[in-house]
Amino acid sequence: PPPPPLFSSRRRHTRWNCSSRGLGDVYKRQGQRRDVFIEHYYAKYINPRLPPSWMTFEALQFGLVSKTFYYLDTEDKREIAGLFGIKHPVFKSWAHSCSALRNLCAHHGRVWNRVFGIKPTRPGNLKHLVPDNSRFYAHAVVIKVLLDKVAPDSDWARRLKYLLDEHPEAAKNGMGFPDEWETTRVWVESL
Asked: Which of 58, 53, 65 lies closest to 33, judged by CA?
């Protein structure tokens, strides 16, 4: 069968399916995780086999969401990234680095004084604010910028500042935070 229209080619669809176990992983995950909305879908519908994409993506692992974005058609990537006010190669980098950071945190890895191998791309308007994208601060800026779009009322930035203030022994410069980071335009309105 032809690839779904959102994938740029049959080859990319096949790669997505193989590299991430694609739909097989979706079926497996939805079998393991029965959220109320998924239960409702399967109780009411037989076809299509998978629930609508908004339900399916709610149940996917973050890494698979990142891989799915990577394999999408360029126009769809542009449209999604445009919702965040960035170009699609930057968004792809951000999704990948957020996925790596999430995995590191989920496995109790250290973010303090760590040099990250998977680094978020710095778009032109953030390069002067994030001088070193190999440290946690670059990831924090990415999270903040994304949250400003999807959850503008989030208190994540205040909670991050509180956590850093509560643990002065974890030197902020070891995580790439510049002096007076709280006063930069990325953070000032949230803190």
From this structure: 58
pTM score: 0.80
What is d(CA 143, CA 157) in angstroms, rounded to the nearest whole number? 9
Using CA atoms in the order 127, 88, 15, 65, what is the torsion angle rounded to 10 degrees?
A: 90
Q: Which two tokens stand for residue 8?
A: 């740029």
Looking at residues 105-127, what average pLDDT do you find?
93
Residue identified by tokens 């309105």 is: 189
The rounded distance, in Å, linking the Cα atoms of 189 and 185 is 7
What does the alpha-carbon distance between residue 92 and residue 100 come to, in Å, rounded to a whole number? 12
Convert the pLDDT of each residue in 82-94 to its tens digit.
Answer: 999 999 999 999 9
Which residue is it, tokens 């995995």? 103
Q: Is the pLDDT of residue 27 over 60?
A: no
Report the alpha-carbon distance of residue 59 to residue 50 in Å, rounded: 11
Neighbours of 162 (CB within 10 A): 12
